[in-house]
Amino acid sequence: MVHFNQAHETEKSQVEALLAKMTLKEKVGQVNQKLYGWEVYEKTDTGYVLTEKFKEHVQQWDGIGVLYGLFRSDPWSAIHFDNGITVEASAEVANMIQQYVKENTRLGIPVLLSEECSHGHQGLDSMITPVNLGIGATWNPELHEKLMAAVAEEVRAKGAHLALVSTLDILRDPRWGRSEECYSEDPFLAAQLTEAVVNGMQGKQADLIPEDKMIAVLKHFAAQGNGAGGKNAAPASIGERELREIHLPPMRAAIQSGALACMAAYNEIDGIPCHANGHLLQQILREELGFNGVVMADGCALDNLVALTESREKAAALALESGVDISLWDDVYPALEAAVELGLVSEEKLNDAVRRVLTLKYKMELFDNPFVEKNPQRNKEQSEKINLESARQSIVLLKNDGILPLKKELKRIAVIGSNADAMYNQLGDYTPFQRESRVITVLKGITSLAKEAEVVYEQGCGIRSDKEEGLEKAVRLASNSDVAVVVLGGSSARDFNAQFDLNGAVINTTGEEEMDCGENVDTADLELGGLQLKLLQKVIETGTPVVVVLISGRPHAIPWIAEHAPAILSAWYPGQMGGQAIAEILFGEVNPSGRLPVSIPRSAMQLPVFYNYKDGGYKKDYYDMSGDPLYPFGFGLSYTEFVYDNLQISRESIAAETLADGEKFCISVNVTNIGDNNGYDVLQLYIKGKAGSIIRRVKELKGFKKVWLAAGETKEVRLELGAEELQVFSSHNTYKVEQGDIEIEVGNPVSSLGAALNIS
Questions:
Q1: CB neighbours (10 Å) of residue 25?
Q2: H helices of 647-686, where?
Q3: Using an 8 Å Cβ cutoff, are 65 and 359 in contact?
Q4: I want to staple 247 with a disulfide (CB 3.0 to 4.6 A). Which of 223, 374, 392, 626 is the partner?
């Protein structure tokens, strides 16, 4: 066995030896990720061939450092089942690329293949999981680690090495179209799930990446979820304290778990674009947090720097000096060679970036063998079980007046609504083309489970459409049924008719698309679009019992639904297995265990409504509306009931110096399932600092545990707090555990117990 120090020295020496042989042109080629992956191959009647465009690019730089999206499929790339790379051919095409570069370049440096994996791989026949908001609703990092390990195994088997995964964005404004890519409005929950991504995808080894793992490129650093007005790529109007308290914790946790790559964010912070922010990428990320991995640019983001510098060469120098190692599609990093020759940036600075790129290739063991085995064995059945369980645990029961779970004796069930049988509407943005047999919609799930009932379906209306043709037919179905399951919400499904920017974001829609969420699809109004609310109102007027299922990529404002619907499930975009998971919960085969990862507002006019606001003594409510959310962060119902008692704290006072030295204290509480059904509870631990040098938040999540309890069972749950959880970024701009009282709250937003701690 090679020990870590030994392996590290070998890695370093091999990288340095290779770097010493490289020309300036070859170095620039290693940090360029210029090509769109679908441009490098063509599918013919006899197989796949490499394009002249690919070969010319390899010749231009005598190599290729990173290639994006070889397997990508979606309307933007226009890659589908007829012209894309099948699962069976993936390894073959990946190997063709590696073989060509090996044989047709001076040094034969292997290529890193990077792929979008926001919620499963954006390639044909991939497993598509719940989006991040759904994963956040599971409150289950252990489960998510298993899911991400399954995704990594699948994508690595195709020949890819880098998985672009959204984990770092904290959702502070649900009008943002990329809300679905966020785990939560809370940094602690997001940090725990980010850690799960790193451990699941990369493994926990310190040196080489196992053959069934890959490197996670964590998106986006930093504060993209705080864009002004909820607009995509808008400035984040925050100070450094807000940056550190809310937006840095996921990256900090990732680094502690061994993260090797991240992607810079489009937005600016206080006037400085993240891609040109040396304070953020060098001083904070590398020097302070100790990040040694690569920083990748977002798509075409470096081109935006030309507005600052007025030349591509100066923009390239600025980005490199600021800490960007790898470009993405832009016309700026191809100018790096000239930037070095003009003296705008040193070659040694370029060497630093190249070292980091080569180090990733070493860690993936590409220098020993860049090829991938064709059709390796994978446990596909086990992966799908994990995906299904993730979908189950992502669903939040918001309201239940006793109608759920549905009785199996029902004779006729009406399944109605825009999202009842629209497979792409339950999958989210960054989704590849699908085979219909691979996606279980709500209609399919209910039909499969309720075998004795007659299940009737009518869409009724679309997401945004104002066409009324289907309304009355849907209402008639509902009026003649024992129950109506009305499936409403949003859609991030891209369409061929939409216009796309160079980075794949939607520029305009024609008005015919149903897309109301996704990248660059920001909304001012959070109410359901089109005629959806009108459809529901008419169905409820029939007197037929109604269950509302919301499938969406952001929290919608649903005050009328909350008041009038007997039961409401929030399912986010639950992935390919989502319809089965929803049906199982509707009929009580699964007890809902999701908890809200984000507050649900009453209206967009309330925003922001995140729970962890600053407790500055100002009036929270508006004159004409409550300041509270409709449903708070952490909320979620169950088919059983949990109670808490016997809260114990290991000590009521502790010195700040003792905490700083690494000592922690324990909080324990008994959780009892007093209902008739087995199920999960999510125990949540919040703190509130009562004194100190800065205004504290009204409360902050600092611990949680998802625990399974049989009916009648009691379990003791133990959580720890230490300096990491209790420190603040003080008025002196340093992290510090400050003296004062801390209120501790354990339980959930509806029922909790309290304790107090004094830090002396």
A1: 13
A2: 656-660
A3: no
A4: 223
